Amino acid sequence: MRTARETAAESSPSIQTVQRAALILDSFTVSRPHLSLNEITARLGASKATAHRYTKALRAANLLRYDDRTALYSLGPQVLTLAAAARAALPIVTAAEPYMDRLVQTAGQTVVLSIWDGESPTVVRSADNTDHLIRISVRVGSRLDLATSAQGRVFCAYLPPEQVPALAKLLRRSPGLREDVDWIRAHGLSVNSPSENGLHTIAAPVFEGDAIIATMAIVGTSVDVPRKADSPMAEALLQITQELSQRLGNNGVPPAEAG
């Protein structure tokens, strides 16, 4: 039970300021990355003068940007720094690190870990093979295409449909994607994603219990990374992701059945 002092503290001006600032920042989404002052005002439920005062303070902290040409606000660069710190602190990142490093040594290629951010896969850790003369690096924070990336297709295969609202439409439009999603469920990994810029990616799911929590992927040139489910590289990826999933409480049910 809260005390009178705690109730008063929660209604104090400083707490209200934090709550309003958080409400403004939370108004921006991937589908709505730009907002006008009128839209922010409506979201805040306050006067336009109050909304302007908050946006000015958030701009000073680099949490918001303002485009004079369009008169629209967007999230500022400091948000990226905070997001990177938040992603680095995710328990899955810490749990996956030794498995990723082992896979780098086994496969000799770059290994990437991605999570589902609500709309698409987002890279939260990338481990490069430092022994290669030419290194392939994937930027942490990169958002991957849902339909064309190997990680995206794995999430399509194993996430509950209600968590991927665009999936039904994508599957109707692309019989090839539908076939690949069924193949992924049957084999437990994606090896048939399109090559991009001479690179090829194979990916497998990581489960926490029976729910997919992340994907782990090997990224390399189309020459180095084969498109075969029974290749040594694909088998190493599958073995390591299954070991990680078991550590996270997966009961050993084959991925095809877990989906």
Automatic annotation (TrEMBL):
<keyword id="KW-0804">Transcription</keyword>
<dbReference type="InterPro" id="IPR036390">
    <property type="entry name" value="WH_DNA-bd_sf"/>
</dbReference>
<dbReference type="Pfam" id="PF09339">
    <property type="entry name" value="HTH_IclR"/>
</dbReference>
<feature type="domain" description="HTH iclR-type">
    <location>
        <begin position="15"/>
        <end position="77"/>
    </location>
</feature>
<feature type="domain" description="IclR-ED">
    <location>
        <begin position="78"/>
        <end position="250"/>
    </location>
</feature>
<dbReference type="Pfam" id="PF01614">
    <property type="entry name" value="IclR_C"/>
</dbReference>
<dbReference type="InterPro" id="IPR014757">
    <property type="entry name" value="Tscrpt_reg_IclR_C"/>
</dbReference>
<dbReference type="InterPro" id="IPR050707">
    <property type="entry name" value="HTH_MetabolicPath_Reg"/>
</dbReference>
<dbReference type="InterPro" id="IPR029016">
    <property type="entry name" value="GAF-like_dom_sf"/>
</dbReference>
<dbReference type="InterPro" id="IPR036388">
    <property type="entry name" value="WH-like_DNA-bd_sf"/>
</dbReference>
<protein>
    <submittedName>
        <fullName>IclR family transcriptional regulator</fullName>
    </submittedName>
</protein>
<keyword id="KW-0805">Transcription regulation</keyword>
<keyword id="KW-0238">DNA-binding</keyword>
<dbReference type="InterPro" id="IPR005471">
    <property type="entry name" value="Tscrpt_reg_IclR_N"/>
</dbReference>
